[in-house]
Amino acid sequence: MTDHGVRAGSLAVLIALAASSGCYSMHANLPGTWRRPAPSEDVQVLGRVDVTTTHLWFLGGLVPPPSADIYSAAVLAKVAAAGGDGIANVVIDTRFEAMDVVLSAFTLGIVAPRTYRIRADIVRLPTAAPPGRALLGRGRALAASIAPPRGAP
Amino acid sequence: MATRRALALAFAPVAVTVVALASGCFHHQAYLPGVIDMRTDGSGLPAPGKLAPSDPRQTRNQLEGVALGQGLTIAGSDVTVDDRHFWVVGLIPIFNDSATPELEAALATAGTMTRLEIVEEVDALSVVGSMIARFFLPISAWVTPPWTFKLYARAAGSGPAPAFAPLPAPEPVAPLLAPPQPAVPDISDLPPPLEVQP
Predict the structure, then answer these.
(1) Is the whole model's pTM more than 0.80, yes or no?
(2) How far is the first Cα of chain A from the last one, in angstroms, to the nearest whole number?
(3) Where are the domains of chain A?
(4) Who's near A26: CB < 8 A, 6+ residues apart?
């Protein structure tokens, strides 16, 4: 093998590996209205949501893409269960855990798990709901509409 | 010559290990300030007026934009945050380790937003750029292809001011019972006595 051959081979390995480091293209929706609360707004923290999901990628992250509701389905369910109106202080983590690295290295990127995590405070808001389609379920919306005003005994 | 060939052959497994580890281990974190009101999807909010231009410090152009992402851009009511992140061997973040300044600027500029979409990917441009960089600058093989974080949103309402007012304070209710009246009128309020004619 000539030097040129070795160089070309090394370059081919690098290109293949770089290409196999893949796409990992994740599109996630977060439904609702994102805004900064007014300084005088009394935002009550009701609890905490912390959801971790591991998604299994194949072929260096080319397929399959995770569902668009990878965060929203779990978050909406937890906000509705806690009787909240939304979330605040949202932190989104994406990481390759140790086992993900081992599995990915062992399979040369053919199987590449990746871990997605969302953390936030579940909050109750004193403002009226913005106009639009209800997200937290009909039962939750009905309960809110007939509930006594906040602050009432 | 034999030594060089042995080194060259040993390069492949080392490269496999380095790139396999470099494509892993990394930890990306994005912090979204503010609140997300999930009672409705906000689709009934009015379209915004003309938004103020975004903070120029959070928008990158030309070569810097290609390398680090374009930062915060606003086109009509479409708000986009585009941020590229780099790690050395997938462990040590370098150059641009957080999208939080751009997200803060987006919130300060657009105020209220709906239809949030978060995108994370290693896009084709990043992979091609990384390959080219490794060819010309071998030491860049220690740096992973950039991880792109994007946030798409649609501005709604009237800009940075809250798009919907807080609930109005309750109206003061008139008392059902009138305040008690004095039983005997004050004599000072009585008219003067009539004078009797002889």
Answers:
(1) no
(2) 86
(3) 25-31+41-128
(4) A55, A65, A66, A70, A94, A116, B118, B119, B120, B121
Task: Mark which residues 100-129 of A lie under 8 Å from B by CB.
Answer: 100-101, 104-105, 108-109, 112, 120, 123, 125-129
Q: Is A95 on the interface with B (CB under 8 A)?
A: yes
- DSSP of A74-122, one letter per residue? HHHHHHHHTT-SEEEEEEEEEE--HHHHHHHHHTTTSEEEEEEEEEEEE
Q: Which residue has the higher pLDDT, B57 or A48?
A: A48
**pLDDT of B119-150, one tens digit each?**
988 877 777 877 787 778 777 777 777 788 99
- In this complex, do B163 and A35 lie within 8 Å of one another by their Cβ atoms? yes
Write the pLDDT tens digit of every residue in B145-187: 778 899 999 998 765 544 444 455 555 555 555 555 555 555 5
Task: Tell whether A57 lies on the interface with B, counting CB pairs under 8 A.
Answer: no
The interface pTM score, or ipTM, of the predicted complex is 0.76
Q: Which fold has domain A25-31+41-128?
A: Translation Initiation Factor IF3 (3.30.110)
